[in-house]
What we know:
- With about 575 residues, this protein is an all-alpha fold.
- It has a domain at about 145-375 and about 410-550.
- About 65% of the residues lie in helices and about 0% in strands.
- It has helices spanning about 15-20, 25-40, 55-80, 85-90, 90-100, 115-130, 145-165, 165-175, 180-195, 205-225, 235-260, 275-280, 300-320, 325-345, 350-375, 380-400, 400-410, 415-435, 445, 460-495, 505-520, 530-560; strands at about 285, 295.
- Strands 1-2 form a two-stranded antiparallel sheet.
- A hairpin with a 6-residue loop joins strand 1 (about 285) and strand 2 (about 295).
- Helix 8 (about 165-175) crosses helix 10 (about 205-225) and helix 20 (about 460-495) runs parallel beside helix 22.
- It is globular and about 110 Å long.
- It starts with 13 loop residues before the first helix and ends in a 13-residue tail after the last helix.
Amino acid sequence: MEPSARKVRPQPSALWQTVRPYLPDRQSAVELWREWRAKKRPMVLRPYVDLHSRWRLAARFLVPMAVGLFCVIYGFFYAITAPYLIVPLAVPIAVLGLLAIWALPENNTAVPTRAMELSFSALMIGLILWPNYLALALPGLPWITMVRLTAFPMAFFLLVSLSASTHFREQVLDTAKAAPLVFRLMLIFAVDVMITIPFSHHLTDTINKVIIQQLNWTCVFLVSLYIFRTPGRVERYLFLLLAITVPIILLAILESEEQRVLWAGHVPSFLRVEDPSAQRALAGAVRGATGQYRTKVTFSTALGLSEFAALMTPFALHWAVGRFNIVLRILALVMVPTLYFVVRMTDSRLGVAGYLVSLLVYLLFWSLVRWRRRIGDLMTAAIVYAYPTMFLAVVASTMFVHKIHVIVFGGGAQQASNAARGNQFKMAFPVLLRNPIGHGAGQSGDVMGYGAGDFVAIDSYYISIALDYGVLGLALYVGVFAMTIGAAVAVMLRARPTGDREIGLLMPLATCLCAFLVIRGVFGQPDIHPMIFMLVGMVIALVSRAKAAEAGAAVTVVAPVKPRRRFRTAP
């Protein structure tokens, strides 16, 4: 066997042999480098900067060249893709806008908090009174709905206030400290939503839904923490919700009489959206088995209207039994049964269930609070002790009284809907086990396993949350509302009567959130979420004010008292 050929090292070229004697050796090169480093300019302490540093001098030439090259490439792609890819091409502009907001100087006196609150109010009014399917549909852009038209300015003013005002940040954080676990769960949930984006099969749709969700959920929550610190704001906004409910009730009665959506056929061309979902919302809804028309008013479905009516019931109850103006109490008392009739117009079982939960839970909270404040009240004590029996009687009536059972759980006409809900739970569980992290926002319908061309409408929002954001996202979502309800109940049972009448609003707020959690089990549309996260912010703000009042009372009680002199001093 021949020996392996040895690798011959290449000989240096004649040019290298000529130049090599004039170059420094390795040791000399290291010394030259150290000498150059020693001659650098002295260190400049912050916040001062060295405007003549080498890196800054190089950046003056390199950064404009890089920006110019990027603009050429950006303009080229915009020219060949517009108007179909306007949203992706707007990302650099949005990033530059965020950097500009981040770089704003501190200014505690000129922050746009008033404009932020006006946008916030417009968002809540437009959410209920304006149909979400009537929007500007421009080529290459998402629907410009009333919610988006008001939420983006609100978010802009919020970011400017957070960036430019230390006082604004301190106030928001001070309010959030009243329920720190809720605030942390909200932030972790927002991070979890971001983490699931790469797992989406339709990245553009997911990013769009995540942006809208952060506007309608997280931004609304942060704005609420600031606005409802001010006494009187909570009552004012709840009055606004009840005032909005009045035209909704009137429109529901008119639509039930007309048996059609009132503005169908009268929508101007610039607001008409040529999309199947929008066309379904404009069309009337009739239950096929019974032939009953299902009223929807400004909501996309009749289920959305029934949910709203059920969630407004605790506030109507509170103003009916509380110490308010007699005219307001009479109007609220009339509104309580009227809301039930609206629910029946929608032929929706989830509305009936939410209405019953609102009545039962509010009765429990009202009796417990009144009992703790008036120990000798026999009527309240009787309600508290008899409440378990009443609750079991209501539950038993829904099970064994046929007419009530059909209203709450449905009969033969609703059997197909019940079967579909059960089938969806069976389909979702294996998908969740395969990917417990989540598939990204808005992907739950696609990953459920339906066939191509099937109409996908997930009935339970818990299924949607679990498939979109995973097991952790579901736990965080439920935890936010559970912790909020717990904080409200703890304060309303512990707080003493104070001059702040708004603390009593914790009862209807906690009741509303309890009904919301029940309804979410059988209803999957997230349209009402901005209002819900406003209510969560209300609860945290009221809890903060109640704790501040308790701390002030404790300081007053424990304040040192000047001791009395027992003996007179000598003259």
